[in-house]
Structures are given as C-alpha cells and as structure tokens.
Amino acid sequence: MKKHQLVVGLAVSALTVAGAVAPAAASSPAAVTSLAAAAPPPSLTYTPAPGWWSTNGRVNDIKVVGGRVYLAGGFDYTGPTTGHGVAVNRTDGTVLPAFPKIDGVVRAAVQDGKGGWYLGGDFAKVGFRVRGNVAHVLADGTVDATFGPKVQGGTVNALALTPTGLVLGGTFTGIDAVAATRLAKVDAVSGARVTWNASANNTVRALASADGKVYVGGDFTTLSGSTRSRLGRVSEATGAIDTTFAGSAGGVVRALAVDTTNARLVAAGDFTTAAGGGSSTTRQRVAAYALSNGALSTFTANANASVQALAVGPTGQLYLGGLFTTVGTTARGYLAEVSPTGVVGPLNGAFTECNAPHSTKYAHGMVPCTPEVSALTVDAGVLYVGGRFGKSGGQPRHDAAAYSLDTGALNSWNPVASDRPLAISAGAAGGPVFVGGELVSVNGLVRKGIAALDAQTGAGISSFNADTDEFVEAMVPSTDGSRIYLAGQFTTVQGQARPSVASIITATGLVDPAFHPAFNKGALTLAYAQGSLWVGGKFTKVSKVARARAVKLDAATGAVDTAWVANTSGPSGALRANGMVQGMEVSLDGSTVFMGGPFTTVNGTTVPGGLAVVSGTTGALGPKQLGGVQGCGSVGPWINRLYLSADGQRLYGGDVCPDYIYQWDAVNLSSATNPTGLIWRNLCNGGMQGRFEVNGHFYYGTHGGDRGNGGRCQAYPGGPNVAQQRYFVFDSATGTLQPDAPDFDTAMGVWSFAATDAGLLVGGDFTFAGNRNNVQQGLAFFSGTP
Which of 682, 683, 681, 701 is closest to 691 using CA atoms? Predict the structure, then answer.
C-alpha cells in the first residue's frame, strides 16, 4: 500500500455493469469496508467492431438503455464506417460492395479509363495494402497489387493521368526515397518513378493536362526553376517549364480545368488579380487563359469569396463551387453555372445547414459552420457536387448532391456523406461514382445532437429522431428507462422549445410534452434519483425561479423544487462563468448531491477546492465534505468532472489543473482519520473528459498529447509516468495503471464511455481508434470484457 500511496485503506468492491441504468436503492449504500484485491486487467479487442456505426462529430455522452445505445454531443450524422472514399451507385448513391476501406483523407481522384480510379491524399493503407498517399483501385474494387509508389514528406493534393504516366502534385518531398519536390510522375501501370524534372517551391493544389502539356496551380512562386506566380505549364514528357505559357495569378490557385470547346484553361482560387503576359488585371477568383500562350481572356465571373472546385460542361459552360455567395452581381450561394461569356445561369444549389469538426475553441457547442462546395464533376448530363451542407433547396442532401445539366433540378442521387468530399469522379459509362475526402461514412442517418443505435448490432435506429438545434452536453436515464433527460446548449428539440434541458420518451422517441422547464442559460450536467432531476450549469433562472447555477426539478413535470437551494457563486470570466456547476452526481437514494465547478461559495458559505457535498433534500452544505483538490497557480483549484460508481460507493473527479484523477469515499466522506475523504489520487497530463467504472476498472478519457509527445499518466499514485494517448484504464482499488493502451487521435480526444454485455463503447472527437489504420470517427466499440 505504501508503494501505491493509497490515502486510506478503504475497500473497493468488484463491480459489474451490464447496462447504464443502475437500480434504485431503498436506502443509502453500505459503508466501504476492507480493501479488495486488484481486478484482473480488461480483456478487450482493440480493433473496432466493424458493424458499429460512427458519427461526424463529438460523442460527449453515451447511455445504454433498454436494448439501445443513446449518443449525445456535437454531431449531425451517424452511419456505417465506410472509410475516406467509396464507390456509390450513380443513380441513388447507395454504397457498392467490395470497395476497400481507405484510412486517411482522399484529396484527389481520377478515373483510369477502365472503371477504376487513381487516388491521392493523406493515407497509409487502402484495404489491407500499405499505400503511401497514392493508390490505384481497380474496377472490381481490389487494390492494384503492382501499383505502389511510396510518397514521402507530405500529401498528394492533385492527380493528372496523361498518356505517358500519372502526374502527382502536393506537399511531398520524395517518391520512393528519391527527391521530388511537390511534383512527380510515375508509371501508371507499375507505379515506378519516372524521370521527370518538374518541381515547385510551395504547395501544388491543382493539375490539368492536355495535348502533351501539364498545367499546375497552387501557392508557388517558382515552377521547375522558373519564376511563376501560382500558375504555370510544364512539359508532359520532361517536366521542363513551358516558356510559351504566360498565364499567372495574384493569389492561390485551387482548381484548374481545361475547356477544349473554347480552347482555354480556367483557373480558380483565392486570387483577385491575374495576368497573361502583361500587367495584372482584376479577376475575382476565376480567370481564363488561352491554351495556346496563356494570354488572359476577357472572360469574367467575379466571385466574392474563394472558388475551390471547377468543372466544365459539354458545351463549355463552367460550374463553380466554393465559399462565395455572389458571382458577378447575381446571388449564388456556393454553387454557380456560368456560360462561356460569363453569364450566370439558373442553377442554384440553395444550400443551407452544415456541420464542422470540433476544435479546442468550441469545447461546449457546435462549431459555427458556413455551407461550401469543395468538389465537382460532370458526367453523362449530371453535375455531381460535394461539400458541407445539409439541404439543397429545402431537400435533405447531406454533403453530396447531384443536378441535371439540362434543367438544374436536384436529382435522386443522395449518398448521405458524413463530411466534406474533396474528390468526386465518375467511373466507366453507367458505372459507379467515387466519392472521397474527409468523410468516413456514407448512407447513414442525419441526426443532430442525439442518436440511437441498436445495442446488439450497432446500427442506427431510423425510427428515433429527437434532433436538437445545438450541442448536447449530457444525458441521464430515469431508473425505469422510460425517459432519457438531456442537458446542453440547445433551445429546441424536435423543433419544440426546450431551452437547455429536455425529456425524451424512450418508447416513442418523442419530446415529453409534460416536461418543460425553461432555463435562461446553458445546462452542463445533470443527475437523476428517486423521481427527481438535479441540473448544473451557467443559468441563473429556471422557469422564472431564481436558481444560481444549480437546481432540483420534478422529473415528471420539470417543476422547480422550491425546497432545494444550492446557489453557487464565483469569479467571472469564460473559464469560471461566475461559479458555474460543471459536474454533478447524486447518491442512489437521492439524499446526497455532489457538485463540482469553479465556484467559491454555496448558499453564501465559502467552499474550498470547487467541490461541495450538499443535501439532496434542501441543498444545504453537509457536515462532511471532500477535499484534497489541487490547482496550478491562478488556475484552480476546482473539480470540473465528476463520476459516481454504480454502487454509489466511490466518487471520481478530475480537476481543471494540474490534471489529477481523484477517488473519494462517497459514503463516509471525510473523517477524523481521513479529513479529505480521498482514497487515491493519480496525476495525468490531460484533464478528465470520459469517465466510467466497470468490473473494478476506471476508464479515463482525455485530450492530452500523443504517446511520447505529452500523453501520459502515472503508473500508480506517485509513480513514474507512462506514455499513452487519450485513453487510460486504472485499477479501481489502487489507482494503478492497467496495460491497455489503444491510440486515439485529435487534440480533443476521448469524452465518453459505456458498456454493454459484449464490450466497451468509447466516444469522442477522434477519427481513428485503436491504431492509425482503424478508421472510426466519434464512436468505437471494442468487443470483450471491459
């Protein structure tokens, strides 16, 4: 015990959780007695179960109730994990079988002329084959075994298939261990590097080829050793600069298209000026140049913001996609058709709604998102469009849509992609369409803030639709599982006014009409026991009743319990929010409430350490409290996350800084021999986000750093650091770190856990789970015994 620095010798009994709903206790839990033996390590397979659906944003909370898994957070989509690129039916967008899963972002795709595609991007594996940022997928969906060039030092952003090979452009510095500075050419059959002397001094973003020439666009100012401003032409055969092409742009070029009908090259991007051998002339984000010599055309199609994608129609009409809202003087949001003379056509995507990935800046809300178009292709009379949007002309189309070239009408193609496509390419005539990019799923369900999955299969339940208009922070079920309560930043649920807190009837998925408290500011946490609901957050009024950041409600009606008052206060500022309540738990019998946050008083009485124990009946501070909370100078001390074990005996908490994990005696609280109530305390580098106890193990999810680059926790309380990233398992009895160490990515990491009888669910902001090659965004299920 001395070795592990347990604070006191309190028992931690074994625990098994089959679901997330704990039975109600008739009385307070029995006191903890003797120290239990350490539990055996978990037995989990750290490859995500393939049938489980994922999301396109953070899963902040998970609850298992009545054969369902409920997810809450900052997503607006859930669907099957299909990888970062997939072939879909060109009529309706349904996924075609046997396409290999791609483990990283696809940024470019060109058809091979035989029903397959060459793909470029930022990936390491395609199917079971190692492929470094470039690959060839054949028409039958298999990865070309003979084509395997190894791209080093950066991504592949653009591809151009020529009669003499495949040209690559991007940020890379080498091919097959031979220097190649942002441009290279490989044999289209073998993938072997071809001697080709093109290079660029900055990022290459776009390529196009015609008549033995390759056009290059990007951020560069030098191309193949010659001064060229963001645009140039090189020889397809040698890579040497073509001095006869004089076209240039005054800013980044993001897309290129050859219009053979009108003998011109069209460039698009962020620039506002362009030139063709003479002085610069105003060209707002789109310019056209003569194929013969690069002379600047009189064509203008001025867009008021970046143009990210281009496509050319069969009669030379241009299709533009990007972030713009006007072209010329015509309102066109993010998608426009322009005639060869610059006249804006009738096509109008009318895009609304979208969802963007989370960042550290928006920890407790949906990231502000503006619709955009990032990929275009034209084939067989149809314009295929990819981007970030939720609807087109009021019709649901999540991030992918298609339109008739003749009429501009939206057609039936609806892949329902999870995130932004960056490359769309039609294959052989009548064959499938490739869609690739930041997406990891297609053919899913649009579900915002909350979703339900089948607890056995992991598939989405289409009959459950309780969309919120903003982020859902937390959920808690009623004891009988008939209701699930939500807390967050939302103002509506299913289109009905439910500011910050709502009740969902699990049998129907409908908003409970009898439960409608009104909060004047956001709710961050909630707890349920014995027919009552306790809520913490930033609010100061609930249904016009003054309640400073903590309130008790009748769980049936949402009425404020006027007998319970636990008003908090504290310093102002975004980090402290006048003493908000960030964590809340309640004993099984409802007699004791635990609250954590940057508050300094409860009901006017000073409370140290941002942790309080109050009566579940009155809200008054209890005679026994908990302590030992650490701080970092001006930050802390306070507790911003709490978790009560299912048997009600152990309270876990995480501080704002320096990132300790605490376990307290939730029954005896403080005593003469243990004035803080602490059982153990372990130090990590990354604050508590996910927290869950099952089978004698405490699961801890965090942001932190990568393994070997900041991600770590102590091997045992007070022990040496162990390098891991974002996922840790501790023995509940001793605080000793267990050997389980799967990897999760992104700066925001792991936020939630839950268990079923078949394994462990992990939720968060990640895009892979277990290791770099396991594509799984937002939610992963690991089979076995947690």
Answer: 701
